[in-house]
Amino acid sequence: MQSIIKIQNISKQYKGADFQSLNNVVLNIPQQSVFGLLGPNGAGKTTLISILCGIIQPTLGSYEINGISNKNSTSIKNIIGVVPQEYALYPTLTAYENLMYFGSLYNVSKTELKAKIPEFLIHLGLENFMHKKIQTFSGGMKRRVNLIAGILHNPKVLFLDEPTVGVDVQSRATIIDYLKLLNQQGTTIVYTSHLMAEAQDFCTDIAIIDQGSVFVQGTPKELIESVPNAHSLEEVFIELTGKKLRDVV
User: Fold this and answer.
1) Which one of 9, 82, 85, 95 is most buried, counting C-beta atoms within 10 A?
2) Which InterPro entries match (predicted)?
3) Contacts of 83 (CB under 8 A, 6+ apart)
4) Crossing angle between the packed helical segments 139-149 and 110-123, to the nearest 10 degrees
5) What is the spatial distance between Cα 147 and Cα 40, in angstroms, rounded to a whole number?
6) Using an 8 Å Cβ cutoff, are 167 and 175 in contact?
7) Which residues contact 17 (CB under 8 A, 6 or more apart)?
8) How far is CA 54 from CA 48, 71, 81, 159, in A?
9) What's the pLDDT at 42?
10) Is 28 inside a domain boundary?
């Protein structure tokens, strides 16, 4: 399948650091895949996604998204959506007001937003809370509004950082089911998570990254079959990255 993201020898060393956060990363992410970027704390996942979203620049290397060079970051930002782990919402505004605001940042017209926002809220089970303030929402409800804020402009590629962290089982199922629908409709999804069972079920392709380098890339089935006696993605992950704790501050 054709690659929609091509990452070519990207390295990143932050100013003042005595090590590289990313070390010569090469990845090809297939079009319309659900691509899991998995790794322990401090492995380099967030740094790589921040580079692909144009938030920070690589020290070395380059990348393309949908044939657009990273030198043309404005054009790239028009075709990607970003859903951060931290809530990017204003607590004193309603869900509808938040989404109208974030849609305007992507230059989506008010007419289009007024038509689309109720549809998104219905899909994610929030239609009865449209005019409630975000500060009254549960964690799972905030996660779902956070997701909508990243897809109002119909991005070709959607970057998700831990989209189901800290939510209940029902919210997680609703989020994953809707992401699967978006993927079926043509959206490429790049996703980070520490939930190995979720990633095994959700992702079509996976790369495991640690210490700034890509260890392996393949389908969940291929990765499980590549490790003797492994029966799950979690067992593969532990085998490749070890059991040592990776606490970071």
Assistant:
1) 95
2) AAA+_ATPase, ABC_transporter-like_ATP-bd, ABC_transporter-like_CS, P-loop_NTPase
3) 146, 147, 149, 150, 151, 158, 159, 160, 161, 163
4) 140
5) 24
6) yes
7) none
8) 10, 10, 12, 12
9) 86
10) yes
Is residue 249, in this structure, part of any structural domain at all? no
> Would 94 be classed as within a structural domain?
yes
CATH of the domain at 88: 3.40.50.300
* The predicted structure's pLDDT at residue 246: 46
Cα–Cα distance measured from residue 215 to residue 208, given in angstroms and rounded to the nearest whole number: 6
- Residue 234 and residue 198 in contact, taking contact as beta carbons nearer than 8 Å: no
Residue 249 has pLDDT above 60, yes or no: no
pLDDT tens track for 145-192: 999 999 999 999 999 998 998 889 999 999 999 999 999 999 999 999
pLDDT digits 0-9 by tens, 197-212: 999 999 999 999 999 9
Pairwise CA distance, residues 11 & 171, whole Å: 36
Is residue 116 pLDDT above 80, yes or no? yes
Whether 169 contacts 90, CB under 8 Å: no
Q: What is the mean pLDDT of the chain?
A: 94
pLDDT digit string (tens) for 45-68? 999 999 999 999 999 999 999 999
Nearest to 90 by CA among 134, 139, 143: 134
Strand order in the sheet with 68-69: 22-30, 3-12, 60-65, 68-69
Q: Residue 146: what residue type?
A: N
Question: Tokens 């089935």 map to which residue?
Answer: 221
Residue-range definition of the domain harbouring residue 47: 3-241
Q: Which two tokens stand for residue 2?
A: 């054709």
In a domain, 248, yes or no: no
Please report the pLDDT score of residue 245 as a whole number: 54
Residue closest to 37 by CA, chosen among 22, 26, 53, 48: 48
